[in-house]
Every structure is written in C-alpha cells, then in structure tokens.
From TrEMBL:
Species per Swiss-Prot/TrEMBL record: Streptomyces aureoversilis
Compositional bias (Gly residues): 25-35
Biased composition (Low complexity): 36-47
Top-level taxon of origin: Bacteria
Region (Disordered): 1-50, 100-120
Protein name: Uncharacterized protein
Amino acid sequence: MAPMHPASDSPSEPGRRSGTPGAFGRSGGGTGRPTGPGRPRTPGTPGAWDAFGPLGFQLVLLRRMADHQPGLVEDALRELGVDRSRMREANRRWQAALRAPGRRGAGPHHRSVLGPPEATGERHVGELTFEAATWRVPLWPDLRFEVLTAPGGAVWNEWLVRAPGAPAPALRTVEDLKPWSCTVDEVARAFAPARPLEGTGPALWRLVFTAPDASGNRREYTAEFMWGLLQRFV
C-alpha cells in the first residue's frame, strides 16, 4: 500500500517515545540535548536553512502535533527547554522559507537543517523508485525521520518510522494503541486489513481498522497519525 499522496510543503507519554517501514509501500536516538537554531536570516536566502537547525525542525513537528496532543507537546517542549512561542516562531520560519521565491521545496533542505542523513537507499512503490533518507530525531530515540524523494527532487513522503533494530511495540488490542507509541505502518500491519483514508491536512493520515479490546470484543476504529505517528482516535 503506497503513501496516499505526495508530501505537502505546508506542514501523549513523554520520555522514551516511539514508528517500521513496510505496509505503506516501502521495502524492507540521538544522544544529548539538541542545540538551538542560530539567529534567523531572511527566509529564502542561502543561509536561512543552515540557521534553522535540528531543534527548530523538531519544533515544526511538534507544532503540527499540538492540535492533537497538547499535553504531550508541552512535555516535549519542557524536555527541549523552550516554550510555545519558540515553537510557533520555528513553524513560521519554516513555512516562510518553504514559500520563499525561488525555493525548490522541502526536499533539498532537510540536509541543510538536519545535516547528513544517517542512512540512504532506494524504496520502490509500485513501478516508482524513490531515494530514501533518514535522520535521528532526539525527542524520539527509537524513531527516524524518513524522507522519500522522487527523481527531480520532489518530496513524495516524509514521516517518522521505527529505527532499524529498535523494538516495535506489541499491538494486540486497542488498549495497546497509546498516543505517540506507534506508527501508521505498525498499526496497519498489526490489524490488517486496514484501510487508509485521505488526511484532513498536510502530513496527516487516517487509518480505518478493526481491533479487539481487552475483553476480546472487536469493532472498527479510525485513528489519526501526524508525521506517521499515532495521535488519537476520531
């Protein structure tokens, strides 16, 4: 099952947070506290992305999740040592840089913001071949941020996936599905056959599946995932 649409340029337990590739068309933790971004330059200038930094990128991920899990986002902001205004500013800068005249989309800029990827390779979705690159995300040491890029540089998909060798959660009942504990791919495989739905915004997925509760009663659920990470039931 392939990602439902190309990634758009627009973009709840703390501590050891959790996401494995496979069911959504793909084959086959950082240490220390991340450093903050430098003084921002005018979005669209060559140095705008270099000044952004890994911390700013994590704040962009959190800003999109704040609408779904505000409590967990607050915990993460405390862990990073920043407040909500810093998060909003990081997101504003990210969007401004993406929309700047002459920009080439998000694809070429992940390396400027996050540095060299931890791993690269190819992913095949049907007859299409994409370049896959993954980066560590200190807030979620068991996950990696994966970007699939089509020939020509357009970003096809970007989301959090389980790091190679990291243990995936045991998903047997709906009670096992805790916010931020598992990825869309893991839920789709654990409760197959699952049916993806079009999300209501960029980087947002919905998945319909049938799962038992702790008493063994089965029913249909719809779950939302932001950046590929479980957020809530709808």
